[in-house]
Write a structure and sequence with these properties.
Blueprint: E1 4-5, H1 40-43, H2 70-88, H3 102-108, H4 110-119, H5 136-145, H6 158-164, E2 166-167, E3 187-192, E4 197-202, E5 208-213, E6 218-223, E7 229-234, E8 238-243, E9 250-256, E10 260-266, E11 276-283, E12 286-291, E13 297-302, E14 305-306, E15 313-314, E16 319-324, E17 330-335, E18 340-345, E19 353-358, E20 363-368, E21 374-379, E22 384-389, E23 394-400, E24 412-416, E25 420-426, E26 432-437, E27 450-455, E28 464-465, E29 472-476, H7 483-486, E30 489-493, E31 505-508, H8 510-514, E32 522-528, E33 534-540, E34 548-553, E35 559-563, E36 571-576, H9 577-581
Antiparallel strand pairs: 1-31, 2-9, 3-4, 3-36, 4-5, 6-7, 7-8, 8-9, 10-11, 11-12, 12-13, 14-15, 16-17, 17-18, 18-19, 20-21, 21-22, 22-23, 24-25, 25-26, 26-27, 28-29, 29-30, 30-31, 32-33, 33-34, 34-35
Helix pairs in contact: 2-5, 4-5
Bound molecules: heme D (DHE).
């Protein structure tokens, strides 16, 4: 047992900038930034892993194009999609990073590009060359690659979707009642990221009930409103629907909704439980509404369009978080690069009504307040939180978090002794935790303002979590460069927060408790059991090394169990069936 009470730290986490500022000067060597691998925020940008596998051809050669073989072009495309497209866009038209289309790159010239790729920039461009990620030959290749027209990945419409759609067990062949003795509401669906699987783990005895194949680089699980269907999405945009009522739960339907994707959700409004599912894609930029029993794709909507404020066309605004409204028959769809939140009414798909809210650019993740009425989401590269009223479908507030790169996951709701109901987010770019007031009726002066900012373990935090039955707020530091910090979790007792003194926290050495000898595992994403008495943490190691899940008693903060199994390869997100379907966080 080794819980440490930490002195309060206010150290800013350096290197939060996500954007690439392609400055005109070339004094790269002078202001050479530190190794980008130490920079949590800039290493946490989308990697278009599936697009990276695409076979491409050099688009129409021009006379003055640099010489490049088809093989080199393929290699450049793979590297670009996996490492550059997250900031600069698939089409190289810019996102958080600057455009890199030939009209821009040709003006800059080969040598400028070569230097820039080698040394990076203090504004956030990784130093691919000096960090050793790219050899001298590859830097040369990428500099030449950027002078050529970019390849355009294929669209993915209804014919392509239908070709991937499989109903493995037809609805009429499925059980009409639960056929197993699993306590499904306290089941955890655990992402096994690099094996493309989910592990379904019993929340009471920690046994692995089954491991199921899902999409490539599987990302998140969501649960249908009834709790029957577990829906999993991989980065390859493959959605797999698992029926938890079957004697042995397994996949009953699957479909691919694009080439690259991150989000999935199901309809939760009364009368529409389990009726529809929705998936959001990074490429092509679109969302797809599907039948909630079979995943049959019903309606595809492109998100291409104009940035909310400048009204400049954006060719590839990605779909980030999607939530189901509890107040209306609607899905809330975050469109990242154009900064719009779409409230998509699913009552009549033929005459689709959508309310488009002007929010802020670079929308990423977020969750509901404790009443489920308000949606609070991070515009992460703008350091802002956007609040939407899901009852009136209106923008309520846009608030600066005072920290760098907020990353809430779904956030954490609790009652602050002074400020009343609040919702918390931590940050990727520094060690701060921000609380926003969420009670416009009872605490109108605090509503939608940052009422408190305090400090946890360090930058690189991805997720915070609490539970209505818990007095604790857990804050991870997954991407912190310091191994010990990234393997630990800070726990605050929210009942002692007085609005004046800096809240103290205890540090749980989760990684140490996992007892893993080999590798440098990071601890990620606290998730409560259904009763709110235990918290689970993933101890996320390299795919060829041992990983674990550590279970902590929420009352005593003592270690309760370590779940280890050779099949637990790269566990990351964990989704408790009850908490996920009821939006308890
Ligand atoms: Fe995620 C949620 C996108 C990397 C674990 N992640 C989300 C959501 C988005 C997103 C848009 C919100 C989904 C929703 O609510 O509908 N994630 C991305 C990326 O673009 C990014 C930065 C890079 C990439 O190329 O994918 C990325 N994510 C990661 C990881 O590396 C994590 C830590 C490990 C993993 O398994 O991939 C990771 N993301 C998660 C988890 C959630 C998530 C666990 C859901 C949190 C929750 O509590 O609901």
């Amino acid at each position: 047992m080794n819980i440490q009470t930490q002195p309060v730290r206010r150290v800013l986490f350096v290197g939060a900038a996500l954007a690439l500022a392609l400055s005109a000067g070339s004094a790269f060597a002078q202001d050479k930034p530190k190794d980008h691998a130490d920079d949590a925020a800039s290493s946490y940008v989308p990697s278009m892993t599936t697009l990276g596998e695409l076979q491409v051809e050099i688009p129409g050669r021009k006379a003055d194009d640099p010489v490049m073989t088809a093989e080199e072009f393929q290699r450049g495309t793979k590297f670009y999609f996996e490492r550059c497209a997250g900031c600069h866009g698939v089409l190289r038209k810019g996102a958080t990073g600057k455009p890199l289309t030939p009209d821009v790159t040709r003006k800059l010239g080969y040598q400028h590009l070569h230097d820039f790729i080698t040394y990076g920039s203090p504004a956030g461009m990784p130093n691919w060359g000096t960090s050793g990620d790219l050899s001298e030959a590859d830097v040369d290749l990428m500099a030449r690659y950027l002078l050529l027209e970019p390849p355009v990945p294929p669209e993915f419409g209804m014919p392509e979707m239908l070709a991937t759609w499989k109903v493995i067990v037809a609805p009429e062949d499925r059980p009409t009642k639960k056929m197993n003795d699993w306590a499904i509401d306290n089941l955890f669906s655990v992402t096994l990221r690099d094996s493309g699987e989910v592990a379904l783990i019993d929340g009471a005895d920690y046994s692995i009930k089954t491991i199921l194949k899902t999409g490539y680089a599987v990302h998140i699980s969501r649960i249908s409103a009834s709790g029957r269907y577990l829906i999993v999405i991989g980065r390859d945009a493959k959605i797999v629907m698992i029926d938890l009522w079957m004697e042995t739960p397994g996949p009953v339907a699957e479909v691919k909704i694009g080439v690259e994707a991150r989000s999935v959700e199901t309809s939760k409004y009364e009368g529409y439980e389990d009726k529809y599912a929705i998936g959001g894609a990074y490429w092509p930029p679109q969302y797809v509404i599907m039948d909630g029993n079979t995943l049959e794709p019903l309606k595809i909507k492109s998100t291409r369009g104009y940035i909310y404020d400048e009204q400049v066309y954006h060719p590839e605004p990605r779909v980030a978080a999607i939530l189901a409204s509890h107040y209306r028959p609607e899905f809330l769809v975050n469109v990242k690069e154009t900064g719009k939140i779409l409230m998509v009414d699913y009552t009549d798909l033929k005459n689709l009504k959508t309310t488009e809210i002007e929010a802020e650019r670079f929308l990423h993740d977020g969750g509901l307040d404790s009443t489920h009425r308000y949606f609070i989401t991070a515009a992460n590269a703008r350091n802002k939180l956007v609040v939407i009223d899901t009852k009136t479908d209106k923008l309520v507030a846009i608030t600066d978090t005072e920290g760098l790169t907020p990353h809430p996951g779904r956030g954490a709701n609790f009652i602050h002794p002074v400020y009343g109901p609040v919702w918390a987010t931590s940050h990727l770019g520094d060690d701060s935790v921000a609380l926003i007031g969420t009670d416009p009726e009872g605490h109108p002066d605090n509503a939608w303002k940052i009422v408190s900012t305090f400090y946890a373990l360090g930058g690189g935090s991805l997720f915070v979590k609490t539970h209505p039955n818990s007095k604790h707020l857990y804050v991870d530091a997954t991407l912190n460069p310091d191994a010990e910090t990234s393997a630990s979790v800070a726990v605050f007792d929210v009942t002692t927060m007085n609005g004046e003194d800096e809240p103290e926290y205890v540090t749980l050495p989760i990684g140490e408790w996992a007892g893993i000898a080999d590798g440098q595992p990071r601890v990620v994403q606290p998730e409560f059991n259904q009763a709110g008495t235990e918290v689970w943490f993933s101890v996320w190691n390299a795919k060829d090394k041992e990983s674990a899940i550590v279970v902590v008693d929420d009352k005593t903060l003592e270690l309760k169990a370590v779940i280890k199994d050779p099949r637990l390869i790269t566990p990351t997100g964990k989704f408790n069936v009850f908490n996920t379907r009821k939006d308890v966080y």
